[in-house]
Amino acid sequence: MKMKCIIIEDQPPAQRILKRYAEDTGSLQVQAVFSDALQAIEYLRRNEVDLIFLDIHLPKISGMDFLKSIPNLPAIILTTAFPDYALESYEFNVVDYLLKPFSFERFVRAISKVPLKNQANTLESQLATPKEIFIKSGYEHIKITVNDINYIQSDADYTELVTANKKYLSSETLQYWLDHLNPNQFIRIHKSYIVNVSKIEKVGGNRIFLSGGNIIPIGRTYKEGFIKKFIEKA
Length: 234
Known about the structure:
Layout: E1 3-8, H1 12-25, E2 28-34, H2 37-46, E3 51-55, H3 63-69, E4 75-80, H4 86-89, E5 96-99, H5 104-112, H6 116-119, H7 123-127, E6 132-137, E7 140-145, E8 149-155, E9 158-163, E10 167-170, H8 174-180, E11 186-190, E12 193-196, E13 200-204, E14 207-210, E15 215-217, H9 220-231
């Protein structure tokens, strides 16, 4: 299930960038775009959302006044060209403070900070892994289907996402992928490896054999937990 979000931004170019970034993540559904906060307040009286992208300098009432006027706020990501309000904004427990202009990569990092309870409204969706993810490669962001990942390997300052046909380098850490992928599908089995359990064909000794012919080690400190979770309950 995608997170429902709205955008409160009075500049059309900024509206277009936010909307495009949100759509490109594959995990957000933009419900509405507003040029001023009063319109958004009226919308929120009738509709529930998981996340708001909020500019600070707005006509009629400011973004800060908006924060003060709305009880039971959903997750908030501030988008502004002015750094002056950063400290004050965190009194409202905002998720992140995006200083314009910001990149798609920075936008995605902000999204990843949204608490899980705001990302899903049912147990099923809380446990779901996004069907697709973006990883940065040079100046590009490459989309990968999550279920195609066989395993993820730590390689010095990078991680390597391995599919049946290709390897993708990512600047994210192994811990990042543990935090962002479904723990019922992806599990750490070695200090340097995360495996997609749906790709496992057999376990022998201290090795895991995957579909497609990949063989990866299983560390002694991780083996007992892996067996209890995925072997003994099978």
